[in-house]
Amino acid sequence: MAEATSTAASGAQRAFDIREALVPLSGLGRLSLRGGPEVMAVAGHAFGVTLPMQACRSTEGDMRAALWLGPDEQLLLVQQSEWAQALSALQSALAPLPHSLVDISQRQLALQVSGACAVELLGAGCPLDLHPTAFPVGMCTRTLFAKAPIVLWRTAADSFHVEVWRSYALYVQHLLRLIGQEFEA
After folding, report:
1. Residue 152 pLDDT > 90
2. CA-closest candidate to residue 160, choices 97, 113, 126
3. Cα–Cα nearest to 161, from 110, 109, 127
4. Is the confidence at residue 11, as pLDDT, over 50?
5. Are 69 and 151 in contact (CB under 8 A)?
6. Do 113 and 19 touch, CB atoms closer than 8 A?
7. Which domains does the chain have, with CATH numbers?
8. What would the 3-class secondary structure string for the chain be?
9. In this model, does residue 13 exceed pLDDT 60?
10. CB atoms < 10 A from the CB of 131, how many?
C-alpha cells in the first residue's frame, strides 16, 4: 500500500537484519469513517474500494485500502498522490448522509514489519495469535503492542502493516528493535 522509505535487500540464507524487517512507511493519508450501512455503501463507491463488511477484514484497490475497525467504523488509507481526489469524492458523496469523516493523517504513522521473523517480532509484544490460520492475510484489528495501541493488518504471509499513534511510535520502534536483536546473527 505505501512506499517503503528504504528497500529491503533480497537474498537467500541471509542473516536476519532488523533494519530490513522494520521499515517506516510514508506517503499515506488516513481517514476515519463512521456511519451506518448506507454510509459504508456510498463511501465504498466514492472511494473506489468496496468497504469490508466482515469483521476485522480489509479490502484493497489501486493506491487505496479500507480496514474494518468496527460495525460502523473504517480506517481508509490512500496514497498522498490520490489524497485530494479521494477526500473530495467522499465529502461530495456523503454530504446528504449522517456520518463522520475525519482526517487523521497526522495522528499516526505506519511501519512495515516483514520477513521470516515478522510473526515472532510482533508476537513478542502483541497478545494475538498471529499464526496464519488465526490471523490470515487481509485480517486487521486494533490491539496492543506492549502498552501501545496499534492497528495491525496482515498484508502478506510474512508482512504486516502497523498503524501507531505518533506519540507511541518511538516506543514501538525501539521495542521492535530490541526484540529483533534476539534474531540477529
Report:
1. yes
2. 113
3. 110
4. no
5. yes
6. no
7. 17-25+108-181 (3.30.1360.120), 28-103 (3.30.70.1520)
8. CCEECCCCCCCCCCCCCHHHHEEEEECEEEEEEECCHHHHHHHHHHHCCCCCCCCCEEEEECCEEEEEEECCEEEEEEEHHHHHHHHHHHHHHHCCCCCEEEECCCCEEEEEEECCCHHHHHHCCCCCCCCCCCCCCCEEEEEEECCEEEEEEEEECCEEEEEEEHHHHHHHHHHHHHHHHCCCC
9. no
10. 10
| φ, ψ (nearest 5 deg) of residue 62 | -65, 110
Contacts of 40 (CB under 8 A, 6+ apart): 33, 51, 53, 72, 74
> How much helix, strand and coil, in percent to the nearest 5, is found in the chain?
30, 35, 35
Mean pLDDT (whole number) for 20-38? 96
Is the pTM higher than 0.85? The answer reads yes
Q: Side chain identity at 99, as an amino acid letter?
A: H
What is d(CA 78, CA 87) in angstroms, rounded to the nearest whole number? 9
Contact between residue 31 and residue 76 where contact means Cβ atoms under 8 Å apart: yes
Q: Decide: 45 and 129 in contact? Cβ < 8 Å.
A: no
All 3 cell numbers of residue 43? 463511501
